User: Fold these one by one.
Assistant:
Number 1:
Amino acid sequence: MNKIKVAPSILSADFSCLDREIKKVEQAGADMLHIDVMDGHFVPNITIGPCVVKYISKVASIPLDVHLMIENPESFIDDFIGAGSDMITLHIETIAKSKIKEIGAKIRSKGVKFGISLNPGTPLDTIKDILGDVDFVLVMSVNPGFSGQAFIPEAVPKIRELRSIFKGDIAVDGGINGETAALVVEAGANILAAGSYVFGAKDPKAAILKLRMQA
Ligand code: DX5
Ligand code: ZN
């Protein structure tokens, strides 16, 4: 099994001092920074766009894991690559399957990792035939839109089945804490996106260590 990587989601950070928040989780041992991009259409919340990602890339020294929860994502891929993304995740619910190969090739040709995400209500079958075109899969364990929601346990058998057919990285996002991390890692996940558990912790280093120690 791969080493467990922890990706704190800045959605739970204090945006009035984002640079300090980023340094805080870097010093606490974060492996990458999870950046939630929301458009108010695909999900009922609006967050940030490429211009903010560009400034984050100036202060961050760990890879930027950009999670696009937006409609029509292909229109914005160049902007997010240009802004300094190291990993880009699109939702299968937002793109035509026939476009995945081409979009993935474009993203990967720039040295950026390409991931596909699926909502809790989207069956694994939907992505089985495109697993050869992605570097990683991001399994949502909450309905996307907000941090601080409760973990949806149906994500666990989904991860287990995915691990049985997919050798790449499996990331999980939503409601991850010390307890749920153990469940998803046991099922086969190796990247944990966590917002409130890390940014809300008194000791973010201990929180990250706790997530990583689940293997
Ligand atoms: C939810 C976002 C998540 C969220 C995770 O739509 O994609 O990345 O910030 O937050 P927690 O870990 O608090 O559920
Ligand atoms: Zn996310």
Number 2:
Amino acid sequence: MGKLKTGFPDDFLWGGAIACSQADGAWNEDGKGKSTQDCRWLDGSWTHDQIEEKHQNNPFSKAEFEAALLDDGTEYYPLRRGNDFYHHWREDLDLFAQMGLKLFRTSICWSRIFPNGDDAEPNPAGIAWYRELFAACHECGIKTFVTMLHYDIPVNLVTKYGGWKNRKTIEFFTRYVETIVEELGDLVDFWLPFNEFNAGRFAPWDGVCLIADEEGDNLDQQIFQCLHHQFVANARAIQIVHEKCPETPVGGMIARFCTYPATCRPEDNMQALHDDQYANWFYTDVMARGAYPAYMDRYFDKLGIEIQMEEGDEELIAANTVDFLSFSYYFSQVATADQGWEKTAGNLVMANKNPYLESTEWGWQIDPLGLRVTLNQMYDRYGLPLYIAENGLGTADVLEADGSVHDPYRIDYLRKHIDCMREAVIDGVDVRGYMIWGFLDLVSCGPLTMSKRYGVIYVDLDNSGKGSAKRYCKDSYYWYRSCIASNGADLG
Ligand code: BG6
């Protein structure tokens, strides 16, 4: 028997997370090529409702893609601007260091390293920038948790090869991984090949760069074929890290949809099992157990999906499993065998609404206890170390005239989630790190706005990119500083 834990381990990693396409900006500077995320557009003058209508009901279309390929401006392309981290990173890092941050998660932009994805040589300026950033993190005592691909692939790989539909993309990704692991591996503490592996199923453009209206009835087939190619690419990435940096852990990540049966009716429970398998477990089972789970056969059969595998794929996936698992956690949802259950928005999906929970302004249901449930479920199943790669609250914060930002709602949200995470530690779960998402305000991924703010640091930019880009510490910044200093004992 082990000894009952009473709180967070001494070396617990308190972190913050961003992603290059939502933060960096500088989309065509220093040799960076256009990426798939540089193509998503928004009219920054729209109202909240207009933006939500577009986001919820109009997935990225072929016409939008074609227009974006021809347009090299930034006016309608918020992800080309980000929060200008590329030019502000030194002052941002100072703020991170002053609060005692222990872990910084960001992603490397593939098109900053290989502007077209298939270039003969990498872009030295791209490598130099990441070396400077990661070395500076280490100088401040901050460990680096680095995502190799957070949705943005060089657009040329899509127009020329069809993106993840084509196995050639596995080769290009492998070369990209070899390059960044060789060039930056000494400065990276944790590698994460793919952000939210299950995103491809729920947000095809983000996850697997597929345009829904182009694929038509073939969409499901294409999604799972692309995902298979990503599983192979993921296994190659793990193999490369294990060979070149054997001391550095390499992990997997999903957007975790914590799922409760609507009632104790057996039918609802069965539905909850299936929802969990198809939306969550499939992805972590492949990455952690190294094989497609048997329950997917029936699912694929129902959807008419036939995955083309090549000889050696299954062996590669089996031989290269993850060292840890991580996940984003924002909400929970209800599983029911009934039709017509009330829906609400959730990260990447529309979810069945839980009458016991409150929602954010964007409809996502707030469920701290679901985080404890999730941590227990994942640890029970895999016994691997866990990291919460993203958690946080998106709200419309207000910058006061004196430069303060009062966000008691965010403090309340974080406090409750961290409390439940502590309970999970006492339950015996090996959770080693926690990263607040959108640590400094950035362009949201779904609605593409600055006004949905997650940060503990405010960035003075609006949905049209107007503003000073100055950074201001919110009340939650000071609160998190105390939380870190007390290793999670002082939650205010
Ligand atoms: C996760 C993504 O799905 O959710 C992030 O990894 C994203 O990129 C985050 O920003 C929050 O979603 P949104 O749409 O509110 O930005």
